[in-house]
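#struct-pred

JT: dropping the chains for the assembly here, can someone run the whole complex?
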Amino acid sequence: MSLEIEERKGEASLGDRLHPEPRHEPLIFERSGAGKVGYSLPPLDVPERLAIPKDRTRADIPGETEVTEVEVARHFTRLSRLNFSIDQGLYPLGSCTMKHNPRTNEEVARLPGFAASHPLAPEEVCQGTLELAWRLEQALIELTGLARVTLQPSAGAQGELAGILMVRAALAKTGNPRRTVLIPDSAHGTNPASAHFAGYKVRELKSNARGTLDLDVLQQAMTEEVAALMLTVPNTLGIFEDRIRDIAEIVHAKGGFLYCDGANFNSFVGVAKPGLMGIDVMHMNLHKTFSTPHGGGGPGSGPVAVVERLVPFLPRPTVERRADGRFALDFDRPDSIGRLRTFLGNYGMFVRALAYIAAYGNRIGDVARGAVLNANYIRAGLQRDYHLKYDAPTLHEIVFSDKRQGERGVHAIDIAKRLMDCGFHPPTIYFPLIVPGALMIEPTETEGKVGLDAFIAAMRSIARECEDDPEIVLRAPHTTPVRRVDEVAAARNLVLRWRPPV
Amino acid sequence: MKFLPVSDSDRTAMLQAIGVARVEDLFRSLPREVLGSPDLRPPMSEIEIRRSFGELSRRTAGARDTAFFLGAGLYHHYVSAIADQMLYRSEWLTSYTPYQPEVSQGTLQSIFEFQTHIGLLTGLDVANASLYEGASALVEALLMAERLSRGRRRAVLSAGIHPEYRETVRTYFANLDLEIAEVPVGPDGATEAQALAAAVDDRTFAVALQSPNFYGLVEDWKSASAAASGRGAQSIAVVAEAASLALLAPPGEAGIDIACGEAQSLGVPMNNGGPLLGFLACRTAHQRQIPGRLVGETRDAEGRRAFCLTLSTREQHIRREKATSNICTNQGLMALAANVHMSLLGRRGLREVALQSHAKAEYLKERIAGVPGYRIPYGGPTFNEFVVEGPEDARSLLSRLAARGILGGVPLSRYEDGSPRRFVTAVTEMNTKEEMDRLVAALGEAA
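RK: done, full complex below.
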């Protein structure tokens, strides 16, 4: 009885529950009640035993929960309703490729041979899982036009590290690993971080007035001490480096490697091939281009495709198809950079990505064509209202800025918060760094014209509000479960967990 | 195509608004030489995908249709239906990193709860929002210790740490001018406290010990904390079987500075080795050096409790090459699954799972020790996994068992020379006495 009353506290009516009103959900720890259980196990069918010295055991986990399944179901359902998600509407978070996640893929990933299997079982009973990994590698080889692919990296950033480590190993093999990696100032923050963890110094290259790489700057920076140029293609402004082949030539002429951050592969998958661009190594984000769910922040998966010359350095193990048609893991790779994690990688994401590729098959270029069409439609719809620092043709995303609205004291963050009131997730803001007050919009191909029109209308109405009634934008959001959250206070007074009452 | 909601007439209208005639015109910045369409099969329907993937799935033996005793860092534990079904909710599945807290309170609060669970289990103050998996979590813990040491270059690792973890550390360290000293395990399969202490010098930034170790033996965290303490090094507890945290003494209480490892056992299916769930926890004093995302509690403009990502000035999107880690996307959905699981099992259930796993493993260990030709080479205490030495090459023995529907263990020869007849066998609450008796009988017949 007391439980029921507690649950009703602060949640007055049914209407309240169905309507996305602000609400407060206690922590699961605050729901605990002594003696409540949320699980059942079979009775122990062997003798009770505790054969570990007492000083190496614990007697209790004070503070851990005591709740029923009912409370867990409600708690997590209510919490979920405080999240915005792709299934609710446009989620134009630039650079993240928030597209629809096909549910078939969720279903097949949970088949027992995939979800309940173990990679250390004898190879002869793992033929299905090995074949699937091999098939995914073949599909990614076909899509990239490169020689081989490792599926091991856990996410894009680990893929970057794997790629740069392979470059380093290849250069070291010829006597000099070199010292520097060149990275344009428009790059994702993971690029310099990954290059650093591979032991390289980072040299930043200034973009030109078009927002692309300046070939003279590159020519000058590209010495025989440079291991690689890390280039995002198309770049984070959505602009394709139209002189990509010249860029590759400059890098190759000095014996360096061209690394491609494939975070934006969604804009040209099935239309163009990195292998034809002169790219030597490229990571892909399965959770972006191949639509494995983002899950509130992962899991990702970051396969890396490489040219023939880098194949000996791939992480161990690789999946091979033997002459007799059987599949096997190959650990005997003396030049391998080693491993970046346990087992084979985020295997569950391989299943989903391969199912996604299978659904499109040879029509997968429609993904890129749809994504580019939608982004350009938003560009056309908003370019009269928002400042576009770089006006070169863009592919799958478009980066506006708050320059005009800033004159009224309204900034990118305010526009982002106001969009929430209109039923949209905000775009990525303040990135790329070369656009002050950036609003980076990536609609993806899984949005229809109706949704795009509604988004354009919302953005335009916010632009008008910035003129007429900036206060309403500055105080946004007004309709979300919580009002504007004080992030400064969070960092100043760190509370990073709940603690049991003493 | 069912995932593409733009109709032909919409497309025409959109192209007109953009001012181009064809979609292809939007790709005019791509040089002709780089264009190429893939030679893939025609699109597959949902029915065909189900059929094709179902066929692949049937050609791998899983835990549902075998007597299953594989572990070595990846375990078959109980996961309640609700822990998986919750993941299907669109709000969890199809959202992303909670950069915008006002529309992400669900994810943020769940991570805050996850951080709390990990803190309670490890006995440490602060846990991050997750890392990829156990091996890279150890790397992150070591790099964190290196930063705290300000200039020391050497890490001491017990050789009882999972071989794939150690290989991962070698990969990451190879180009960072960092040195690794491995302390071999003693003749009883456990790390000797004296050897660990002796390996620490004034250039050492960390001492890492795994318990239960790769051979299943329960180590004493105090041998790591004593080796590091007062010598300017951080002690690191590595946990590859997180179910043990509910029964074994928590690292934090044994003076450990950083705990890290693999939390897959806490609500995440094996998934053929991934996605898994790395974790890292430390003391408050070092929270500003922790890698990865962190969620903190704060207030909204109306003074209500709210949550947001915090201390992001440590992270790559702000600090770039000076960041504490290059990690961006982590294991968000797995952290949610673990939160649901830990919340359901809680104070009593986590412990009961651990106790059952242990009791069953003790039963199996004793039975196998009684089979002629087999012995348990290490006599020390184990949690739910132990090494068996058989009468013949373990790989061929285990392959024969597999053909009979028994996945009996992982041969040590996968990882080390010199013990071809040994394998490591894991038991959890999922194993029945009948399955264990079947394994024992099969070993007896094989001998």
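JT: nice. The mean pLDDT of chain B is 96. Residues 266 and 338 of chain B are 5 Å apart (CA to CA).
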